[in-house]
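pipeline/complex-builder :: batch 7 item 3
reading input block
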Amino acid sequence: EAGVAQSPRYKIIEKRQSVAFWCNPISGHATLYWYQQILGQGPKLLIQFQNNGVVDDSQLPKDRFSAERLKGVDSTLKIQPAKLEDSAVYLCASSQAGTGGINEQYFGPGTRLTVT
Amino acid sequence: AQSVTQLDSQVPVFEEAPVELRCNYSSSVSVYLFWYVQYPNQGLQLLLKYLSGSTLVKGINGFEAEFNKSQTSFHLRKPSVHISDTAEYFCAVSWEAAGNKLTFGGGTRVLVKP
């Protein structure tokens, strides 16, 4: 079974530029999550999708971050414009149907973003 | 807001020695508990989980954890570590009242020395 795929693995941009990350979840997984992991901290949930609908985006900085999951499969996370404090690893995870935490979340390798 | 605390940010340990990583959380009402491991430049991998039943949970790679409701703790243990256990370990909690979203602790970096 293929795991969660993410690209790119690394990205360096200057502040005020825009950037986009892509995630392909495990086949058949209805729920998709984007996390932000700042160096030295645990992952923080940014947004959660159930199929192509948003379940929770309460911690997404909506003035600069946006995410979509068209057709309920792949997802993209965009930052525009980026700030220095956005430097972090962005992790994508997926789980089987349902929003319950008891459904194991499978994580991708992450995208390491450096904003200079 | 609910919170998860990992008391040790770094734990150095010699190879073949035991290790315990501590995790406490803010409320024990209807919780599901997880430990994840993160190797360098990789995503998180589930080590073990407590959903219900026996409070002693066994996971992969010889790890185990014990759910203590009265102390709101879920400490992770391994009786004998290997060099390959060098990684960062995250405790995560899902509260049923919060829609079962995962809240992570700050992580504990384990460095196994030969």
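note: The radius of gyration of chain A is 13 Å.
queue -> next item
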